């Protein structure tokens, strides 16, 4: 049996709480089980336990068997001197402190369903381990868990943004530019786009922001996508411009082989996305500060609806002509950029500056945008879990990636409920 199940049972007081006694028959009352410690040291800090007539405040250590206390070397570890209660499933040994005192021990008694449910969930191969049980959980309960998951996801993203800021001299515009570039890769070419942004400082682009052709030359050149063909006059002009700018700014381009076209629809070809990215940079200076000043959804759509230059109306790649189409960034793609880049950055910025109103606006944006449609969200749908907006879809993505996929059911609030359902009531 896993010790983490005992932690879970202790943390949520799922044990049989009446007539609790130590192995020396002293009455025990758990006033507060304490705070779970995930670092070194005892398992629960700051617990409050009444043993006999005395209320003890201190730490609690949990093991499957008492003898693990010695096996884990706690006998001569000072960090364990403050343990007021040793909680075990089987008390197979007395535990003595360095000063010769006995440490009180409690054998936990709890419903067998918890272990049975847990083992069944850990063994099954369903897409979501509690797939057959989640229907029994009230919707209102899942809603409140979604709120916590969404905040957790945004705070996790804030941590990544903080790291990017450290790497970019606390320059919000630069960090936003790199993250935005990544989002233009729409998964398949995200990494290549990020490499491209790293190879081309935003300050260099800023010097040429009024000339779309120069911006395209810089981006396509740095992307390693300027082919050496003399049959296309636009390509020739870009090459000429890029060679001049490359030597002026001492730039080093990335390898063009980084870009993937396989299984992509032409609208998603990297050439089209780079042309759109160039148009956005040409159209907007100080993009991140504009966004933090106005988070209105229509405004954001108007900013990101940038149309590439004339050449791209009749091309999906260099030299191959195609029927005319505008190739502006579509509404769905803009929503994806807002969800994955704009919201986390605005939220992170608001957190860093203590701007509660802006923090709420970032979350509001997710409530106003439609739910994402991907394999994770379709799975939840099939299980009857509603997903009304991007707020919901982001929360459910967090649940799947950080809890279900990692079998972290003991840390999940749904897990708390499904593990305590009577085992016989479930069809597994
Ligand atoms: S993590 Fe939660 S939602 Fe996911 S399978 Fe476990 S109990 Fe179910």
Structure description:
This protein is of the alpha/beta class and 428 residues long. The chain has helices at 3-11, 68-71, 112-123, 139-167, 172-184, 190-199, 202-207, 212-222, 233-249, 270-283, 287-293, 297-304, 331-353, 356-368, 375-382, 390-404, 413-418; strands at residues 28-32, 35-36, 44-51, 54-65, 83-90, 105-107, 315-317, 320-321. The strands form 2 sheets. Strands 1, 2, 3, 4, 5 and 6 form a 6-stranded mixed sheet that branches. A two-stranded antiparallel sheet has the order 7-8. A hairpin with a 2-residue loop joins strand 3 and strand 4 (54-65). Helix 4 (139-167) packs across helix 16 and helix 14 crosses helix 16. The longest helix has 29 residues, at 139-167. It is elongated, with a radius of gyration of 29 Å. The two termini are 20 Å apart. The structure holds iron/sulfur cluster (SF4). Iron/sulfur cluster is lined by residues 128-130, 399, 403-404, 408-409, 412, 414-415, 418.
Summarize the structure.
This protein has 17 helices and 8 strands. The strands form 2 sheets. Strands 1, 2, 3, 4, 5 and 6 form a 6-stranded mixed β-sheet that branches. A two-stranded antiparallel sheet has the order 7-8.
């Amino acid at each position: 049996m896993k010790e983490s199940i005992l932690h879970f049972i202790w943390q949520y007081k799922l044990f049989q709480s009446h007539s609790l006694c130590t192995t020396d028959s002293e009455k025990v009352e758990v006033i507060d089980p304490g705070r779970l410690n995930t670092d070194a040291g005892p398992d629960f800090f700051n617990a409050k336990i009444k043993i006999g007539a005395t209320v003890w405040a201190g730490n609690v250590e949990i093991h499957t068997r008492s003898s693990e206390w010695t096996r884990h070397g706690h006998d001569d570890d000072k960090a364990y001197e403050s343990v007021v209660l040793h909680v075990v499933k089987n008390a197979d040994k007395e535990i003595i402190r360095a000063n010769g005192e006995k440490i009180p021990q409690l054998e936990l008694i709890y419903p067998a369903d918890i272990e049975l449910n847990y083992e069944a969930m850990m063994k099954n191969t369903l897409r979501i381990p509690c797939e057959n049980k989640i229907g029994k959980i009230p919707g209102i309960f899942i809603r409140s868990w979604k709120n916590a998951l969404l905040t957790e996801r945004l705070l996790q993203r804030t941590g990544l943004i903080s790291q990017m800021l450290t790497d970019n001299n606390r320059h919000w515009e630069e960090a936003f530019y790199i993250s935005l570039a990544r989002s233009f890769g729409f998964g398949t070419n995200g990494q290549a786009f990020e490499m491209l942004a790293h190879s081309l400082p935003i300050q260099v682009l800023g010097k040429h922001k009024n000339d779309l052709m120069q911006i395209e030359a810089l981006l396509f050149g740095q992307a390693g996508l300027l082919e050496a063909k003399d049959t296309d006059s636009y390509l020739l002009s870009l090459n000429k411009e890029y060679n001049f700018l490359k030597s002026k700014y001492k730039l080093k381009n990335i390898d063009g082989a980084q870009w993937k076209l396989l299984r992509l629809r032409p609208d998603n070809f990297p050439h089209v996305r780079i042309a759109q990215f160039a148009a956005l940079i040409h159209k907007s200076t100080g993009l991140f500060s504009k966004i933090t000043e106005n988070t209105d959804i229509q405004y954001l759509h108007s900013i990101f609806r940038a149309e590439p230059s004339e050449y791209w109306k009749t091309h999906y790649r260099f030299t191959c002509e195609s029927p005319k189409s505008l190739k502006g960034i579509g509404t769905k793609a803009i929503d994806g950029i807002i969800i994955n880049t704009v919201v986390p950055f605005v939220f992170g910025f608001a957190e860093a500056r203590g701007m509660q109103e802006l923090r709420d606006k970032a979350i509001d944006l997710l409530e106003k945008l439609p739910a994402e449609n991907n394999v994770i969200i379709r799975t939840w749908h099939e299980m009857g879990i509603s997903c009304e907006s991007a707020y919901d879809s982001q929360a459910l993505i967090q649940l799947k990636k950080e809890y279900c996929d990692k079998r972290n059911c003991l840390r999940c609030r749904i897990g708390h409920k499904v593990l305590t359902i009577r085992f016989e009531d479930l069809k597994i």
